[in-house]
Structure formats: C-alpha cells, structure tokens
Amino acid sequence: MSSEYNASSITVLEGLDAVRMRPGMYIGSTGSRGLHHMLWEILDNAIDEAMGGYADRVTVTVHPDGSVTVTDNGRGMPVDMHPTLKIPGVEVIYTKLHAGGKFGGGSYTYSGGLHGVGASVVNALSEWVKVQVFIDGVEYLIEFESKYSPSKKKVLSGVPKAPLRAVGASQEKGSWVTFKPDAKVFDHLNWNRDTIDRRLRELAYLNKGLTIVFTDERLREGSDYHAEYRYDGGIVDYVSYLNADKTVLHPQPIYIEGTREGIWVRAAIQYTDSYTENIFSYVNNIPTTEGGTHETGLKSAITRAMNDYARRSGILKEKDKALSGEDFREGITVVLLLMMQNIQFEGQTKTKLGNSEARRVVEGVVGDALTAFMEDKKNAELTGAIMDKAVKAARVREAARRASDLAREKNSLEAAPLVGKLSACTGRDPALNELFIVEGDSAGGSAKQGRDRRFQAILPLRGKPLNAEKKRLDAVLANEEFRTVITALGCSIDENFSLENLKYHKVIILSDADQDGAHIRAILLTFFFRYMRELVAAGHIYIGQPPLYQVRTAKGVRYCYDDAELAQVTAKLGRGYTLQRYKGLGEMNPEQLWETTMNPNGRKLVQVTIDDAAEADRLITVLMGDKVENRRQYIAKYADFDRKDNFAAQGVE
Ligand code: 1YM
Predict the structure, then answer these.
(1) pTM value?
(2) Same domain, 319 and 390
(3) Mean pLDDT for the stretch of residues 591-609
(4) Residue 471's domain is classified under what CATH number?
C-alpha cells in the first residue's frame, strides 16, 4: 500500500456504451442478483479503502426511491487531473470502463472485485449517480446521469451533468456514493434487506475492527431498520457465532495467521461435539462456496500435522495405520480467509479457487501453526481431546466399515434394486427428468397415477427418515428411506458425490402442508445439505406447493395456495361456493394432484438455493440440532420458519 496514487496510474480501456448494450456480461443478470451486484461493486471500493488501513467505517443506506448510498471515511477518491484525459480521477473511475488502480496493480494489492468491473459499470447501468468526495476540509461533488439523446437516437449513459466542483468546506473525510439503478435496465429495484444485512455482517466478520452500518429507510417514517456490525475478534468471532448453538470442545477458537509468497492466510478453527465438518472459505472477501485449492491445502495440513503429532506422542503405535482426514475433521468448524492477487475461479458457479500456489501456502502456514499449537504445553488438554475424538471417529468408522463394508456400499447403492419403491419415468434425459419425493404411500399412489410418466418419477417415502443432523454417515446409510433416495438419485453421497451421475435435474419434495410435512421436508433438506450440498448449491432441489383449498362454484373449481389467496377469491365470489380444505396430499385424486401440483404448466415450485452456506448451516443447527431451547426461541421469533430458512427460497414457476 505504499505506492503513491496519482491520476496517471489509472489505466484506461474503453467507454460505457458496451455495458448498456450487454448488462448481463458485466453484472451477470438484470434480475435481483445483478441489482445487488451493483451495490457490491461500490461497497468493494469502500471495503478496499478500509483494508488498506485508511478507513474504519463504512455505511450503506437504502432509500425509499430505490437509490442506495455507500460511504467510507477514507482518503477520498482522487480529484486531481488525469494527465492525458484531462479530467479528474474520480470522473475517470466513474466513466471509463476498467479504470482504476485496481487493474494496474500496485496500490490495490488485494482487491477483491468479484466481478472486477467497478464503479463505471454501476454508473453505466444507473439512472443517476452522485459522488461526494471529502478531502482536506473541502467537499467535492460530481453527478452523472443516463438519458436519451434525440440527436444520437440512443441512451447516453453515465454522463457528467457538470464538471467536478468544490461545493464548500466540510469536516467530513472520505467518499460518498449514491446511485439509482436504472429501472429500464433492471427487472425491479427491490433491494433485499436480508441479503444486504447478511453480506454486511459477513464483511464485518472478515474485516476485523471495521464498523459497518446499515440503514434501510423504506419502512414507515421514523421506523428505519438499523444495524451496526463491528467484530474486534474478526473470524474468531465469526466461528463463535457459527457454533453458538453447538456444544464446543473449547471456548476459544484456534487462530492462525501467516503470509507466504505474497499470500496472506488467516484461519479460525473450533471443534464441536457434532459429527459434521463445516469449512467456510473466502478469498479477498469473496465466499468460495465450492472450495478449491486453499481448502485442499487446509485439509492436508490438518491431516498431516495431526497424524504426525499422534505418532510422535505415541497415540498411534508403529503398527497402527494413520488416521484419515475425515476423522480429524469430525465436528470441526473453520473459517479460512485468503488475500491474494490474480485469483482464478473455477467450478460450476465460479466459486472454486484454482490457484495452485494457494494450496501450497495454506498447507504450509496452517501445518506449521497447528504443529506449534499442539506442541505447546498450554494446549495439552485440548490437543488430547481432539486426538480422542479422532481416534473414536476412526474406531466407529472402522466398525461400520467392517460390519457393512461402507466404502463398497457407498458405490453399490447406485446399483441396489429399487423394486416396488420407485416408479421410474420412461425418458432417459436427466436434464428433463423430475423426481418427486412424496410423503406417504397414498399420496405416492395418486402421484403415480396422475404424473406424466415420460419425465416424472415418483418415490414415496413410507416412514420418517431420521434426522441426519444427529447421526454419523454409517447411521444415515443404514436408514432405509435415505438409501432409497440415494439409490434413486444415482449420484452417491459425501466424498463420493458426483453431480454428473444425477439422474433427475429437478428433485421435488412433496409433503403435506402440516407440521409433519414441514418436519419431513426439513429432515430431507438437512440430509441434502449435509451429504449432497452440491446438489442444493447447483439448484436441483425444489419444494412442491400443493394448494391448501379448493373453491368450487357452478362454473368450475379454483385452487388457493394460501390464506391470502383464499380471502381474495372468496371475496370476489361473494356467495355460492363450497370450500374444501386439503389436510394432506392424500385427499387429492390423481387428476387434481396433477393439475394443481405436478403439471409444469401452472404448478408452483420453490427452488432451494444456498446464498450463504455459513448462515444456512447455522440455521440447520438451530432447527435440527440438540439445543431445544434455542430452537424454541428461534421458531417463536420466526413463526413461519420453514419459509424463512436460509435456503433462500425463490419462486420459479
Ligand atoms: C463509497 C465508495 O470508492 N472509496 C475510495 C475509492 C478509491 C480511493 C479511496 C483511493 C484509492 C487510491 C488512492 C489508490 C479509489 N481510487 C481508485 C483509483 N468508496 C470509494 N476511496 N486514493 C484514493 O488506490 O491508490 C479507484 S477506487 F482508481 F483512483 F485508484
């Protein structure tokens, strides 16, 4: 961060028209995701300023008209003239595509920039942008707008309304940016408070000591939503937060920090008494949901350092086999954060780190730190507890393997017969095929008769599957209901999971609209999340929405999917209708079930996505874990919990 900025260090590539022509290429979509990317771009610049050590406070304010203000209290964007363009630095940043010290290297050593497209793209796709810069007691202002030019017969985007000017004296310092995304570009301007809130909290955890303030002014006057995040413990606080509803083996997470080959590594690790492993990794503040080289390095480090220790200390005798990585990761929660240049993303959703040097560096930093930690007499008790847990995990795993030959079983499940359970479809294209997992035999029967057998397969669940949250893999595999699901899907589970072998690209959970149905749905989601997370991440899991009511009149029938719709429909009809409330799927005959719930033309499906794996994990722990009191409180707080769960629900059909 030592290199001096001046306007000449900004490299200039091209103008803004290209962005208007193809917004999707620059921000991914013009839907909700693209809209929020606009905010992340501006926010990135503010966070970068804080990461450089120049700012300690960032604010985000959503206004009622759909505009958003982002501020930081840093150095302020450059206002001096660019030597060749002869316009102020701030104007270059907002009007020239790819302008920014970010791309020249040098000043922005660790710039995240998920999309790297920057402020100019936001300007190009906004109706207007207002930039205020506060430097040395002076406030500077420049405003941009996009508007139709009759002479050029096109929209000119992001044009300065007037040259940058000093508007007066001010005690502030830093940069303030207000922008209103163009309603002609975006499908809507509905900012999602939860999405913003979660991202800001996450950023506060990742940037120790930074204060992030969020205000949503869209509520009634005088009742703005207000949140303030600041974590002086950084990712250590983050891990404690993630484990708040679990029973931990040690109160204080293990903290590791180090820099090698220009890559900065931080990790916080804490063991719980659960059986699942949870690793949340980030590179330059960007979540790497699909993992990648840094996670591989982390895992190798843990396995190697802990096995070495087990040997040295005599826990493992000469004749003993080394413990497996899984054994050392049972019950672990890790937050791993890297800062590095030239990040390469791979994978289905481009959230998998590909840089090979990251693996080497993380393995080195974490391995050395863990070894030192375990050798330290102060940590003898915890080290012993970790070793005990791993040895126990290995023993259980070994016993299970011997009893049922687990490893082979995981693979052979695909071939196991499903006679009498699955009603397969005739089509052979997984991309078109749908699997309905249906609660109960009677509903299963209706679904089987009502379906379009060319692409719809039916799998009725007889009993309640067990709660995967409280069980190890061997118990999950021993469960009849889960075995059928795994066999039907064909993609195996856990370490053996392979998305390519998935036989149905839509997996639709269909359960009754009652407590039991909600429970079965939660159990299935927990299972998918714990053992087939990629399936959820790739958007293959859906929740079917059967109607709650049938309203019959002389003219025909209407189905209503919730109470609000029912109220609307009956209000319109006045009198002269009969109302039937469906208590379960089983009450519908095959034709009705097809018409209301299965027919792709007209049915409602809710797609289950993981926007935020860390938050989803915390929620599953609360809802499916052991701490009954926390669950009670949570449910009391969010009465419609199964809609608010952190699998973001998106209506798609
Ligand atoms: C609310 C958004 O953009 N803050 C911000 C941006 C910059 C600077 C400071 C900055 C950076 C540097 C030097 C440097 C940017 N500068 C550039 C560019 N907040 C917000 N605060 N002086 C000021 O990197 O050396 C791009 S962003 F291009 F000038 F380097």
Answers:
(1) 0.77
(2) yes
(3) 91
(4) 3.40.50.670
